[in-house]
Structure formats: C-alpha cells, structure tokens
Amino acid sequence: MTLRTAFNSLRWFLPAAGLALIAFACSGRLGWAGLAAWILGGALLGLGLLLLWWTVRPNGSQVHPGLILESWEVVADGLHNSNTDLIRWEGHFYLVHAAAPSHFGSTRCHLNLLRSADGHRWDRLATFSSPDEDIRDPKLAVIGGRLFLYALVNRSFDPEPYTTVFSWSEDHGRAWTPLQRLAHEGWLFWKPKTRDGRRWYAAAYWHEHGRSALFETEDGIDWQRVAPIFEGGRRNDETDIEFLTDGSLLAVARLEGYFREWGLGMFFGDPTGATLIASALPPYESFEPLTFSRLTRLDGPALFSHGGRLFAVGRRQPNLRQPFARQGSLFACKRTSLFEVGPSRLTWLSDLPSAGDTAYAGVAEAAGSLYISYYTNSIDRDVPWVVGMFNATSIRMARMDLKAVIARADDCAQEESPDQPHGLPRA
Q: Which residues pair with 150 in a beta bridge?
C-alpha cells in the first residue's frame, strides 16, 4: 500500500472504526470500558468526518476578475508535481518542476525540464535525478549564453535539503553536464538575478536555517559570498532577491518563527512566522531589515519587477485566526497568491486558482503579459495543506495582463487595509 493510499483511506477507516466502537459501547452494560469506547469512538468518528469534509469542500480562492486572463494545466499525470521555475529565452518558455510520489522526500523524485513556444504545447527536454537522494527546488538562469539549472538535494523524509547542485547546457537544454555540487557546501541557493547581464547575484540560506546571505558570480559556477542578508534565528528559509530601478537590491525571506526554531509549532503553525523584507545599496555589502510582514509567511518566494514596481508570487495562508491555523499550520488552507512588495509591507493583490499543497512559482514576461507557473492540488476543492501533501498535484500556468497587475496594485494602494482581501469572488 502506498503512502498516499494509506493516508486517504483514513477518511473511511476512521468513521467506520468510530461507529464500531460506539456500537460496542451500546451493546450492553460495560462500565468504564463502555464509556471509553464512547469517547474514543466519537473522537474517531469526528476526525473521520472532518477529514472527509476537507476533501469535498469547495475552493475558496479569491481571484481578482480583472487579472487572470487564462489559467490552464501543463502537467497532470497523477504524481505530486511541485517546485516550478520559469524563464523566457530566445522566443521560448523553459519550465522546470519536481515530480515525486508525495510532498515528502523520496529517492524517486526527479526534475523535468520542458520547453514551449506559446506556453500551451510543451516538449520535454531533459530529466534530472540525484542517485539515492531527493532533489527539489530547481531554478533556471541563462548565464554567459549557457542555460544553468540549480537544485537542492535532500536525504530526509521531512525535506531538509543539505546543499546545492548544478548543471549547465550549451545547446538550449538538450545535453547537460552531470550534476555537481556548488563549492559552498551547506548553502541552499535560490534564483540567480542580474542587472547588467554580466554580474549575477543569488540569495542562499544556510541548511541549518537561521541565516541567509548574498552570493555573486560571473560564470554561474564560481560563486563568492558578498554579505549576510539576515541572521538571528526565526528559522530563516527560502530567500529571493530583485533589483529596483535605483540599483538597490531588495530581499524577502521566509521566516518560520521562533516556535519552529525551538522545535515547536511544526503542526499547528507559529504566530511569530513572517516574511522578512530587507534592502541593500550597491555594492550590496550590507542589508538593512525594513520590516517583518505578518500578512503571510511567503513560502517559495518568486520576486519580479515591472514598471518600477516590485511584486512577489508565493504561498498565502488566508485564515490565521482559526483554531490550529497559525502561520504555517499543516491543517490550514493555502493559496498561490500575487503580492506587491513595498519597503514597509506586503500588499495582497489576488489569489491564483489554487488549493492544498501549492505555490513555488516561476515568472516570465512576454508580449505585455505575465506568465506564472505554479503547482496545486485540484482547484475544484479546498483541501488543507497536510491532505494536499499526500495527493496528486498539477503544474499550472496563469497568464495576466501586466497593465492590469499595475492597475490592481494602484487600487490596493488606495485602500485602507492593503494586507486584507477585499471581497473578491471565489474561484
């Protein structure tokens, strides 16, 4: 029996077991044993019905009607597809994603690289795997005319990547060098960015968490550490960067919080979880923390800029006040969402059609449109994160008009509470 089958069978097994115990308690005068059967049976029945409800309730994503022009599936093959990245290069989209039996670490996990001229019809160019290891969080960049792939490798069931591997192609993604480790062992690299096409920068976080740093390169292979981005606990995870029009560099980081750092809050979330926003001026040797946004813990951040504005796509948890639904809770609903990033706050703009285990987007621009790749469970239902982790996910693409994105950001900037959704229709 697979892990997915075993987990999903609980929604039928738990109510059946609960009813059986209740029937046993009603069978005669059983004293304390009967009372215990009543209590345990009621608990199992309640848990089973809750799990069943989680798998059938309708999707509650709030998608702004003026933003999403199209949304479609790219990969839906029954696997747990995840962790996307996307670039536009020489007239084609390049999309990479992870594919595994579930969200959790597996030696069967691999990366698929796809290419498309229009974003709808895709050809597979290459598949990557790391022998006897899990591989995830792929990132793409074209550095010095070569297409680079960076990814994180992991050896544990609850994914805790321990270092970064990379490969490159000189023929537009058909043939690749063998995967090899970056020289900075233990640093987990996110997406490389450049302002001038010559010098590239990437944020990376330490595999034991708690700190992140900026690195630079000119060839994509030899990286040098430039400066710390954040230090001081809070379990610093995925960190992304983007250049602003004045040449400064802005960074956002997923901070899981103090409770998670101390080994608590793993299941029910952490109220101290947040998103760090920090900034550095050239030559980027010192980052200043600007704010800690509690709007969301921006898992899998993907930053991009347009029209002098800075935006992010990442995971949002819409309900933070429900029982067992603190920031990062396994039992809460999740969304892939679009935000504007300012020096003092994140501003939520819209969800994408998404639910369950979702987010880890890639972004690319083409012909006045913004294309966003991401992964999600079925968008017809609204399963909590933990249910989504065990079940199939698809890779989706959404297309937005960039002018509409700017207009939506302008509207939200005039509202009193930019951190809150504003009555948008449900998906």
A: 139, 166
Judge residue 426's burial from the number of C-beta atoms within 10 Å of its C-beta, 0-12 exposed, 13-18 middle, 19 or more buried: exposed
pTM listed for this prediction: 0.94
- Phi-psi label, residue 397: left if phi above 0, alpha if psi -120 to 50, beta otherwise: beta
The two three-digit tokens of residue 119, written as one number:
């974003």
| Per-residue pLDDT tens over the stretch 95-120 | 999 999 999 999 999 999 999 999 99
C-alpha span between 231 and 227 (Å, rounded): 11
> Measuring CA to CA, which residue among 135, 127, 140 is closest to residue 168?
140
In whole angstroms, what is the distance from residue 111 CA to residue 126 CA?
8
CA distance 400 to 313: 13
Q: CATH second-level architecture of 68-413?
A: 6 Propeller (2.120)
- Residue 358's φ and ψ, nearest 5 degrees, are -155, 165
List pLDDT tens digits, range 149-204: 999 999 999 999 999 999 999 999 999 999 999 999 999 999 999 999 999 999 99
Q: Which residues contact 388 (CB under 8 A, 6 or more apart)?
A: 103, 334, 355, 356, 357, 358, 377
Say which amino acid occupies 401: D
Spatial CA neighbour of 342 closest among 423, 419, 256: 419
Eight-state DSSP code of residue 393: B
Query: What is the DSSP-derived secondary structure letter of residue 177?
Result: P
CA 99, 101, 103: angle at the middle one, nearest 5? Answer: 80
Residues listed for the chain: 427
Check if the beta carbon of residue 14 is closer than 8 Å to that of residue 47: yes
- Token code pair at residue 358: 């979702």
* CA–CA distance, 315 with 295 (Å, rounded to integer): 11
Distance of CA 178 to the CA centre of its chain: 27
DSSP string, 40-86: HHHHHHHHHHHHHHHHHSBP--B--TTTEEEEEEEE-SSSEEEEEEE
Cα 301 from chain centre: 7
Q: Enumerate residues 6+ apart whose C-beta is below 8 A from 28.
A: 34
Q: Say how far apart CA 147 and CA 3 lie, in whole Å.
A: 36
Q: 253: which residues sit within 8 A by CB, 6+ positions away?
A: 203, 205, 212, 229, 230, 236, 237, 238, 239, 240, 275, 276, 278, 301
Maximum CA pair distance of the chain? 82
